Amino acid sequence: MTVVRTRFAPSPTGYLHLGGARTALYSWAYARHFGGTFVLRIEDTDVERSTPEAVQAIIEGMQWLGLAHDEGPFYQMQRMERYREVLAQMLDAGSAYHCYSSKEEVDAMRERFSAAGDKPRYDGTWRPEPGKTLPPVPADREPVVRFKNPLDGDVTWNDVVKGPITIANKELDDLVIARPGGVPTYNFCVAVDDWDMQITHVLRGDDHVNNTPRQINILRAIGAPLPEYGHLPMILDHEGKKLSKRTSAVSVMDYPAKGILPEAMLNYLARLGWSHGDDEIFSMAQFCAWFNTDHLTSSAAQFDLEKLAWLNNHYIKQADNTRLAALARPLMEAQGARFDGAPDLAAALALMKDRTNTVNELADAAMLFYRTPQPDAALMTQHLTDAVKPALAQFAERCATVEWTREALAAMIKEVLAAHTIKMPVLAMPLRLLLTGQLQTPAIDAVLVLLGRELVLSRLKAAV
Ligand SMILES: Nc1ncnc2c1ncn2[C@@H]1O[C@H](COP(=O)(O)OP(=O)(O)OP(=O)(O)O)[C@@H](O)[C@H]1O
């Protein structure tokens, strides 16, 4: 049985966006499912656009998601010697050749083909063939290296997402695999890397479909085994355009700042292009156990913030309160929250978290317990009526001695209501205002328990 080896091979020309993250997730999960190896390879040969900051951003994004690579990161720029070695072998073997046509000449050839209604391409001037005499090598011109693409036949592969794909070789040019000076080009580097890194399964976006027949031909020419290929449909933005770091996509690392938990993002991305029956919510352990290429969707998926928020709500409810407190605390400090003598933050978040979609919303909601209540004067006049004041006074008095549990407090409130023949809201509304400054709070007995006897008594004393 083959040992599965997958890779994620981003170009470090910007942050990791959701499209890239899903590619990484599927490649990672596929390796995990089969007990294989997940390789990270940084395709940094676009020297103008690649930056070390982008490499860092990609690695950070993957770390946040917990997509640990088993090997790498390998940097293509550090593998130049190896590419030169393979180029030399190909030139020796005759599967590649030096081409001395100038850029102007190549442009003119392409124009000629276009004018004749053909696909613009290189005309093969320097392509060696048995019995063919090549033109004299021009002085002072550095050649490029071209791949000697087969002239006839087709390239066919059985794409694990899209099914069988066939491209005629005559559609494929003699690709430049090294620029003047010997700098290797993209498809060639990828083929050599996939060979050297013994990649068995290439899962990537379908923006790469056109590269695949070229890479397959190069792999064949160098005697390398072919990996399986799966081309995932693009993730589109809300306008239906491909998410791209050049335009609309947001960085994966914007989501922690928006209060999204990584497990929600992973679950969301897992479902964006793959399904397992009706299952919407599952752990990564479960996903890795389920994930293979059987249920990948072949149509494009649109990014849906609402669904992500829905999943995030689920994972916030599941999350450990201490972990949530660590995430919420700095957000609350930035809003001036005071934690001295205030209720335990984890306990406060536990009360609020059912109804919030993001950690940020949760932090905002919990602020109510961490600032001095400043109830609106009009609301106070409306709710702190003369009729309710005696009930409030009795309530405050009983607070001094009642057992400080939710049950005991609820029972005590009932007694006070009965004694004054008033209904719950009549007492609860002014209480909420006095204790928190707001009318909207969790259940009043829960609020009391959270605030604690001392704080409750001090806040009531001023008013009653
Ligand atoms: N919108 C998208 N939806 C799904 N997959 C994508 C999307 N954009 C890129 N990918 C895939 O993510 C992986 C990493 O790609 P890479 O880092 O090279 O991004 P890219 O294609 O350069 O993105 P961009 O177009 O934003 O510059 C590749 O497999 C690519 O096919």
TrEMBL record:
EC number(s) given by UniProt: 6.1.1.17
Pfam families the UniProt entry points to: Anticodon_2 (PF19269), tRNA-synt_1c (PF00749)
InterPro entries named among the record's database cross-references: aa-tRNA-synth_I_cd-bd, aa-tRNA-synth_I_codon-bd_sub2, aa-tRNA-synth_I_CS, aa_tRNA-synth_I_cd-bd_sf, Glu-tRNA-ligase_bac/mito, Glu/Gln-tRNA-synth, Glu/Gln-tRNA-synth_Ib_cat-dom, GluQ/Sye
Classification via CDD domains: GluRS_core (cd00808)
Sequence positions that bind ATP: K245
Transmembrane regions: none
Catalyzed reaction equations: tRNA(Glu) + L-glutamate + ATP = L-glutamyl-tRNA(Glu) + AMP + diphosphate
Region (Disordered) residue spans: 119-141
Domain Glutamyl/glutaminyl-tRNA synthetase class Ib catalytic residues, every copy: 4-310
GO biological process: glutamyl-tRNA aminoacylation
Any one GO MF annotation of this record: ATP binding
Physiological role: Catalyzes the attachment of glutamate to tRNA(Glu) in a two-step reaction: glutamate is first activated by ATP to form Glu-AMP and then transferred to the acceptor end of tRNA(Glu).
Family that this chain belongs to: Belongs to the class-I aminoacyl-tRNA synthetase family. Glutamate--tRNA ligase type 1 subfamily.
HAMAP family (UniProt xref): Glu_tRNA_synth_type1
Name of the protein: Glutamate--tRNA ligase
Taxonomic lineage: Bacteria, Pseudomonadati, Pseudomonadota, Betaproteobacteria, Burkholderiales
Gene: gltX
